[in-house]
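Fold it.
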Amino acid sequence: MAEARTLGELRRSGAVRSRPVKEEMRANLLRKLEVGEALFPGIVGYDDSVIPRLANAVLSRHHLILLGLRGQAKSRLIRSLTSLLDPKLPMVAGCEIHDDPFVPICRRCRDVVADRQDETPIAWLTPNERYVEKLATPDVTIADIIGDVDPIRAARGGHDLASELTMHYGLLPRAHRGIFALNELPDLAGRIQVGLFNILQEGDVQIKGYPVRLPIDVCMVFTANPEDYTARGKIITPLKDRIGSEVRTHYPETLEQGVAITQQEAWTSRRDDLRVPRFIREVVEGVAFAARRDKRIDRRSGVSQRLSISALENAVSNAERRGVLAKESPIVPRVADIYAALPALTGKFELEYEGELLGAERVAQELIREAVGEVFSVYLGAVDFKETTRFFEAGGSLRLRDEASSAELLKQLSQVPGLLDATSKLGVKAEDPAPFLASAGEFVLEGLWAQKRIGRSDDRGYVAIERRGEIDADLERLERMRRMKKQVN
């Protein structure tokens, strides 16, 4: 359709009144399904669960709510619904609620069309302009959502306060002929939730102080955390009853899905000489999976996918800093860089009582160890490391510096028989640059410790597992002495 500039041009082009927005979304969804087009590009892991249910809600012309823990792409999903809107939609130019020029509902537009008729100016809406989003907070008022009287507008225009022309429209009327999204619905006060009843059931809204009804055409989408029903607030039962479909979201079900999401979202393409090995990505993702099943972490709060994204970005930054200082290229993150990313981990989960006793940092360190051990089992579980462990059992030891250059680290790792030979299982070849070999070799060493085949101190001194027991005993004895001294003082 050519972009008409007046109502007359729009009529001559053969255009008719626009479809209801939910009918428009339904038709565009069916078209995408018929041609096999991806419904929501960039959404990973929901192809067989969330997306079919979301599609069914749209096909049913339902208002809907997405229920899920934090970091499950709820906001991204609802914003993706704009892809189901028409590329262009005509409106009366200057209208606050995007009125249909053929059937305007606001007083101003009715007066403009009656006065100017075919010369009524027309503007065109894009899908993004038809999307209104609001974060629900306890201080949101009915005036914010629905609208109110504007005495300043009445004074400037010389209108009586009873005139429709003095209306100040809220966010919901401004989403007319589009999508209105309300995030964290349980945080919205109950009396404000009551104000949404009419629009959900009868499809109209009443402005405070006016004997007028606006038949708003809108698709309403909500998000909420299931635990919020009994935590910060709740969704009142009559409102839940009026929401057509309830779609549950979830965290990635496989490590591969998690790696794909983190790789898509994390800022790791910051420089051309940066390379992130696959096993490092899997360890970072494994930390999130381990956290979601750990009893010391509050499962009701959830562990956001942002944990993996932030941790990988932080680990890459630590590797970048070390690489710049050592003047080496390419820059390749190591397991030590994941430990350096603790600040990106500890704020991403809520601890239960047992976890609080241990401390967030210690819990995060143990999660990293667990993730390293699991990834190690996948790649190197069948490798014979007797020769390597024998080196430590014979009294050998190794202390690695986090800031060591790749050349320095390789020199240390090469002292351990069979250690660097195993890196071939990680896809690293002997002729690869030193940063790759150093990263793979350190991973092997850390994996042996995670599998309890060798010991390791907190300052990354690797020894035989028996000696590790002696070190632990010494540390425990020192801690007892420190507590006794403190009590005496």
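The chain has 21 helices and 14 strands.
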